[in-house]
Design a protein that fits this description.
Radius of gyration: 17 Å
Largest sheet: 6 strands, mixed
Structural class: alpha/beta
Strand order of the largest sheet: 1-3-2-4-5-6
CATH topology of the largest domain: Rossmann fold
CATH architecture of the largest domain: 3-Layer(aba) Sandwich
Shape: globular
CATH superfamily of the largest domain: NAD(P)-binding Rossmann-like Domain
Length: about 170
């Protein structure tokens, strides 16, 4: 398994929360205060096997848009998993029908990327935004070439389809 941190709140028996990506410090600090939290702190996304193992042991999964959660992963989740609390605006990467069939609630955080989107837009040129939206510039390559900060790569990947739709209307 990748490097992770566990923190438990000794006051109450807490749900086991599995966070697939490190989130903003304030969010992580609060989660670690309130819940028995496992956090993936590695630079790469969890593998499918690691994600399945996390889903088998947790009560709450906190994924991001880079985590594809399909019907097979949901079917293999442990009986304790009752909530998938996506940290991001959409849920297109989660099989909602399969989650509903298992009685798993799926939530998201609309608006969480609004400020990041504005910051990202200001740091990239219009040509780079068009290229990411068109799929001709991969966000990973943008980081490697210095056009994009590593901290913005996840946001760029999450927004790639939205940028493609927006810029296709502008042409």
């Amino acid at each position: 398994m990748p490097e992770m941190t566990r923190a438990a709140n000794p006051r109450v028996p807490n749900p086991k929360v599995w966070v697939t990506r490190e989130l903003p410090a304030a969010v992580m600090d609060r989660m670690e205060q309130l819940f028995h939290t496992s956090i993936h702190r590695g630079p790469a996304a969890l593998t499918r096997e690691e994600l399945a193992a996390a889903m088998a042991e947790c009560d709450v999964l906190v994924p991001t848009v880079t985590d594809e959660i399909d019907a097979d992963l949901i079917a293999g989740a442990g009986p304790a998993l009752k909530l998938i609390a996506n940290f991001g605006a959409g849920v297109n990467h989660i099989d909602l029908k399969a989650a509903r069939a298992r009685g798993i609630i799926v939530t998201n955080t609309p608006g969480v990327l609004t400020e990041d989107t504005a910051d990202l837009t200001m740091t990239l040129s219009m040509d780079d935004l068009l290229a990411i939206g068109a799929g001709t510039l991969d966000p990973t390559m943008a980081v490697m070439t210095g056009k994009l900060k590593l901290s913005d790569m996840g946001v760029a990947m999450a927004l790639q389809s939205s940028m493609a739709a927006l810029f296709s209307k502008m042409r």
